[in-house]
Amino acid sequence: MNSITIHVPATTANLGPGFDTLGLALDLWNETEFVQTDAGGFSLTISGEGEKTLPKDETNAIAAAALQLYKLAGKDPSGLSIHCINRIPLISGLGSSSAALVTGMLGANSLLGEPFSRQDILTMATENEGHPDNVVPAMLGGLVASVVCDDRIVTRKLVVSPMSITVVFPDFYFPTKTARAILPEYVLREDAIFNVSRAVLVIKSLETGDLTLLGEVMEDALHQPYRLPLIPGAQAAMQAARQAGASAVALSGAGPSLIAFSRQPANPAIGLAMQQAFVQAGLSARIFPLNISVSGASCVENKAS
To answer: Looking at domain 2-158+293-301, which CATH architecture does it have?
Structure first.
C-alpha cells in the first residue's frame, strides 16, 4: 500500500491591478491523503468545506485531476482512495478550484513515481484552469507573477514582506464563470496604462512592506468596476475596511471575498467592519485572519506503521 499526503495553500489572485497575472499564497491549507492499494475500486471522502455538497465520485475535481494523470501515464487507477480535509471555502475567490487541480495532479504524480515534472503539472493545471494566477502560487507559495508564453508558463517568485491579511467571504454565489462573463471584451488604452503602472508598484510595495504605497496603487480599472457593483455590500465593505485601519483592499480573485492588507499584528476591527457592511446589505459573512505563506504545495510520504 502506498500512501501520501498533499498540502496545498489557499491563494488570492489579481491583487488589484495585476489581473490574471499576480497571485499570492495564504496560510490556509487543504490536506488530502491518497492511498493506492491492490484491493481495486475507488473511494473518496470529504470533511470540512464542501463535505455536504461536493461529489464523492470520479467527477470530484481532485479525483478528476488525479485520473487525468493516470490516463496520461497509461496506468490503472484501480485501488485509489482519497480523503480530503478541506479548509479553503468554495467559490470564494481563494483558489479552491486551483487547489483541487494541484492536489489531484501532485497526488497522482507521487503515487505514479513522479513521471511528470512540476513544470509539467503547472502547465496542465493552467490549461485546465484557464489562467495561471492561482495555480502558480498554490504550487510555489509566496508572491508570484506569471504569464503564458507560447504555451509555456513563465513565472517568477517575488520577494514579499510579512503583513496581516484579512479576508471576508460573504454568503453570495458569484462563480468565476459569471464574474468573467461580465467583463468587456475590449478595454480603453488609458485603462490598460492605469493597471500596468499600478501593478508594477503593487509588486514593489509588497516587496518592501510599504503599505502606504500599497494603499495608493491597489486600484484597478479592468475588472473590479464591473464586479464590485454585483456583490451586495462590497463597495461599502471596502470603505469600511479602510476606515477601520486597512492600508489597501481589493477583490480576492474574482470575488466575492474581499482581501485587506494591514500592518502586523492583525487588527480584528478590519474584519468586523467589513462583515458588518455585508450584514447591512443582507449577507452573512465569514472572517479569515490570515498570513502570507511563503511555502507552496508539499507532498509527504506516509510511513507504514
So the answer is: 2-Layer Sandwich (3.30)
For domain 164-291, is the CATH number 3.30.70.890?
yes
Ranges assigned E (strand) in the chain? 2-13, 22-36, 42-48, 80-86, 143-149, 152-158, 164-170, 248-251, 258-262, 285-291, 298-301
pLDDT in tens, 136-194: 999 999 999 999 888 889 999 999 999 999 999 999 999 988 999 999 999 999 999 99
Report yes or no: 97 and 20 within 8 Å, Cβ to Cβ.
Answer: no
pLDDT in tens, 240-296: 999 999 999 999 999 999 999 999 899 999 999 999 999 999 999 999 999 999 999
Q: How far is residue 6 from each of residues 62, 146, 153, 158, 285, measured CA to CA in Å?
A: 11, 23, 22, 24, 29
Q: What is d(CA 86, CA 46) in angstroms, rounded to the nearest whole number?
A: 7
pLDDT tens sequence across 252-268: 999 999 999 999 899 99
What's the grid cell of residue 82? 482519497
Residue from 51, 104, 53 nearest 80 by CA: 104
- CA gap 37, 72 in Å, rounded: 20
**Grid coordinates given for 301:** 510520504
What are the structural domain ranges in the chain?
2-158+293-301, 164-291
Under 8 Å between Cβ of 104 and 64 = yes
Residue 251 in grid coordinates: 477583490
Q: In terms of C-beta density within 10 A (0-12 exposed, 13-18 middle, 19 or more buried), how is residue 101 classed?
A: buried
**Single pTM value for the model:** 0.94
Cα separations in angstroms, 185 against 180, 181, 189, 222, 255: 10, 9, 13, 10, 19
Residue 53 buriedness (CB in 10 A; 0-12 / 13-18 / 19+): exposed
